Amino acid sequence: MEPRIDAATSIAEIATRYVFDPPRDDDPVIEFLSPEELAQAFAGVIPIELGDNVPARSAEALASAAELVVRHSVHTSHPRFFNQNFAGPDPVAVIGDWLGAALNTTNATFEAAPVFTLMESALLRKLGRVAGYPVSDEPGSLPPGLFAPGGSSATLYALQLARHRHQPDIVRVGASADRLAIFVSDAGHYAAVKSAALLGIGMDNVIKVAADDEGAMDVTALRAEITTARERGLTPLAVIATAGTTVTSAFDAIDEIADVCDAEELWLHVDGCWGGSALFSSSHRHRLAGVERSDSFVWNLHKMMGVTQQCTALLVRDPGQLGPCFATGADYIFQPDKLHAEFDSGDRHFQCARRVDALKLWLTWQAYGDEGFEARIDHAVAMADHVRHRIRSSDDEFATIVEGDFSNVVFVWVPPELRPFDLDSLAPDHHAALHVLAPRIKGRMQAEGTVMMGYQPVAEINTFRFILNNSNVEPADIDVTLEFISQYATEEWKGV
Ligand SMILES: Cc1ncc(COP(=O)(O)O)c(C=O)c1O
Q1: 149 — phi, psi (to 5°)?
Q2: pTM metric for this prediction
């Protein structure tokens, strides 16, 4: 079969144009269509559904389909995209990803990925040093962790490592009858609960420790929950401290939590999926003080650092534990006597085929350097500070629900009759009306393609969340966004 170079070339032209000249300014953040309208738009070019007989399409038809894909996708690098804990990727990372795809290999072995295995080890050692882990630079020493396909998977692996330390024969004989318990704050990510479900620990045995109003774990409550769990016959296994919660970007007091884990002999896992990158900034790294004491630390470079999804490092204090926990010694791939088998990471990992995520991170890091990475974090927090400033000086038109001091700001638009806003004395009908307002505003943003911003209930009211990790955002974009919200809110409030 001849490769379709004609098709690939025409798609590449569209993709390259998009990477170097993505939508901005007055361009829509999304040209929103319903599922039916999307199906209809594609029907005239190449239907989305694949019938029983799929014909080979012309390069022109494929190019038109690619144009439609671009047109109706969400433009995450648009400076009015604040929707998620990721945003537009850095162009170097995108092209690095393409290069990795072109070289299509697995990072499991030196044999299949000589350059990438070395890059991955180097990145893990550098990330480990940034986190303050004891990293050995001795030739042949194990890198302090592995790359994983996302923060949720890395959480699963970390908890399996914790379980393995607790019961070293678990991989052969299966789990003991111990009813294990994991502790995470009630502002922590749901990856903890999902992992517990998959590991057979059970969702009910993930103890949600109270967090304060900002979203940071109450460490006194943690101590009490551990005691209660023991009294209930549970065996405490691990504490997950969150460095940068998903909604309010709060940081748990890792050092204090590490003291608890030391005293109770528990595994300390730090979920730095969102806020781990604060370590790149000398102004913000103090937020993770104590992370060097953790047993494992997950860090999503695909969130704040603008590396394409996914790019996740799971750092571990004791890399020697990875092999016993994950190895099966398959003799058709991990032959110990082949050239440089000591660089094979595959048997220290759960995955077999594994994307070379290291390449795009390595290229991006080398392109910007440590200083560029620091500037990216500082810019994100400076933009969040601008949001806080604009809300404070809005004559009570907006009110923060959780102001925070890092990258996220949780806020509401306040109807004129409720200014200045006092959440605690809100009448039930106003509470209910405000709760339904945010989804309506969001619907207007999407339909008109002006802004993408998420909402979530905080204090049982749907609140908006500015997430500042998009490096294209400047103060003017924030100002325009607040103007759009003000306009939509004023119009929609009349109807609620
Ligand atoms: C704090 C936190 N932990 C874990 C995750 C899960 O990471 P991933 O989406 O890579 O699975 C997220 C995702 O937003 C997160 O914010």
Answers
A1: -80, 60
A2: 0.97
